[in-house]
Amino acid sequence: MITIKSVRELKGMQASGHLLATMFEALRDVIKPGISTWDIEEFCQEFVSSRGGRLSEQGFEGYKYGTCISVNDEIAHNIPRKNVFLKEGDLVKVDATCNLNGYESDSCTTYGVGQISEEDQHLMDVTKKAMYMGIDQAVVGNRIGDIGAVIQHYVEDEEGYGDVRELIGHGIQPSIHEDPEVPHWGKAGHGLRLREGMTITVEPMVEAGGDWRILQKTVDDPNDDWVFYATPDGSKSAQFEHTFAITKDGPKILTLQKPYDGLEKYIPHFDEMED
């Protein structure tokens, strides 16, 4: 069911999203060659819990951890691991959801570890730009297909990368996954019409090798049958994700990270509004 959020709910989601954004900002100084992906999980757990929040992916559909951490060709949904250490030039994707006082937010950031190649930086830049291009289509009266169409055209037709089809954005609140589904591909003018007060995520996953398909794998743990996804050709991938609200003044990003330079139009001000 799609819920239209009240100002009170948007205030709560803005606070949750701000906490999650500050966690991702802090990770910029944490992620470096030599640390394990488990170190990232521990940092995120401590950061959010010490500020009154909870990483709400933990326990959702049987998931055991607070973060999903995927490295290089791993597209999404891999688990934090004590035996996986980041190396110079890696790309690491950290995906997390935050619950603060009952309000949810969801975000993902790709980090370059140490010095990365120009090719990998371009992959990250394209993926982030694709996310913002999709978010810009999320205006009152547009349709879900408008979001996916602009992402797919840019990623595949203009840049020659692979735009993952099977993993998609979604509505959020009161749980971390709600209707509607938000594909990152599609036809402009098709799909559900967007309304003021909807809260959704846009989270394109882009494959450097140009393939849009994904390879399903099971985590390397005999006590866990959790499934994650990787590129079929071994090429690297990137992902960026924000949670945002659709308003009469355009999309307002609840998980926006500093610096805000050039992103001022996305800054939410629900905390200044009357309920």
UniProtKB/TrEMBL annotation:
Q: Which gene encodes it?
A: map
Detail which positions bind a divalent metal cation 1: 95, 106, 241
Q: Which residues form the Peptidase M24 domain?
A: 12-248
Described function: Removes the N-terminal methionine from nascent proteins. The N-terminal methionine is often cleaved when the second residue in the primary sequence is small and uncharged (Met-Ala-, Cys, Gly, Pro, Ser, Thr, or Val). Requires deformylation of the N(alpha)-formylated initiator methionine before it can be hydrolyzed.
Could you read off the lineage of the organism from its UniProt record?
Bacteria, Bacillati, Bacillota, Bacilli, Lactobacillales
**Entry-linked Gene3D superfamilies:** Creatinase/methionine aminopeptidase superfamily (3.90.230.10)
Q: Which cofactor does it need?
A: Co(2+); Zn(2+); Mn(2+); Fe(2+)
Under what name is this protein listed?
Answer: Methionine aminopeptidase
Q: Where does a divalent metal cation 2 bind?
A: 106, 170, 203, 241
